[in-house]
């Protein structure tokens, strides 16, 4: 027996046609990135290519159900398909997190002057930033991201030192302009600290301007469309 594929219904109710919804999404970006045509996506979903085109152009609302089904075909999470650079993006879509730099083999942060790359997260706060783990920074984790809230910078305090315990939990920005991802250790010199990291040479006696706690790791995933999309 043939399987009947159910699909979301298009509404012809005038009140539904006049309903407002976000003006943009990322369907076309990911479809073209995956080298699928409108016709191929429509055939896989047992629908018309005009329907997919209406969804892409915002003439038809992209519901979570449609995003789920198209996402299964393109192998892209539905929440990424709903993303838009416009301020009226879908509430269920991912939020952008800029990738602001790369961590090198010495656990030093090399910031990007004008970040163009972004990842998408469902729970992203306005100040959330991502740093990519570069080659040899953490063997086996190249391309992973560490996340921190740039709005949560703080000074070095005894409480902060106790929170890090024996782990590398903070970014440390020193007065010479460098930023490191290392464990902060008090120096014998008042107002100075050492920056330690496993199997790395210790950076001695630096003056720290601010620290910011690393919140979590994120595995490599889907990048968001560039700003001009």
From TrEMBL:
<dbReference type="InterPro" id="IPR010982">
    <property type="entry name" value="Lambda_DNA-bd_dom_sf"/>
</dbReference>
<dbReference type="GO" id="GO:0003677">
    <property type="term" value="F:DNA binding"/>
</dbReference>
<feature type="domain" description="HTH cro/C1-type">
    <location>
        <begin position="27"/>
        <end position="81"/>
    </location>
</feature>
<protein>
    <submittedName>
        <fullName>DNA-binding transcriptional regulator, XRE-family HTH domain</fullName>
    </submittedName>
</protein>
<dbReference type="Pfam" id="PF01381">
    <property type="entry name" value="HTH_3"/>
</dbReference>
<dbReference type="InterPro" id="IPR001387">
    <property type="entry name" value="Cro/C1-type_HTH"/>
</dbReference>
<feature type="region of interest" description="Disordered">
    <location>
        <begin position="1"/>
        <end position="24"/>
    </location>
</feature>
<keyword id="KW-0238">DNA-binding</keyword>
């Amino acid at each position: 027996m043939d399987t009947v594929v159910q699909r979301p219904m298009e509404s012809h109710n005038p009140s539904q046609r006049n309903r407002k919804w976000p003006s943009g999404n990322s369907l076309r970006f990911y479809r073209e990135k995956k080298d699928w045509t409108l016709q191929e996506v429509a055939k896989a979903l047992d629908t018309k290519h005009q329907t997919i085109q209406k969804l892409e152009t915002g003439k038809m609302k992209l519901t979570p159900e449609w995003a789920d089904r198209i996402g299964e075909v393109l192998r892209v999470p539905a929440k990424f398909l709903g993303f838009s650079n416009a301020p009226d993006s879908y509430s269920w879509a991912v939020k952008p997190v800029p990738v602001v730099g790369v961590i090198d083999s010495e656990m030093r942060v090399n910031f990007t002057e004008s970040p163009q790359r972004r990842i998408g997260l469902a729970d992203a706060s306005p100040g959330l930033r991502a740093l990519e783990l570069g080659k040899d920074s953490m063997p086996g984790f190249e391309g992973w991201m560490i996340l921190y809230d740039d709005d949560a910078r703080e000074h070095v305090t005894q409480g902060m030192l106790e929170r890090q315990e024996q782990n590398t939990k903070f970014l440390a920005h020193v007065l010479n302009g460098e930023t490191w991802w290392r464990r902060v250790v008090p120096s014998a010199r008042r107002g100075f600290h050492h920056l330690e990291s496993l199997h790395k040479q210790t950076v001695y006696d630096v003056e720290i301007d601010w620290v910011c706690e690393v919140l979590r790791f994120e595995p490599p995933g889907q990048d968001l469309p560039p700003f001009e999309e």
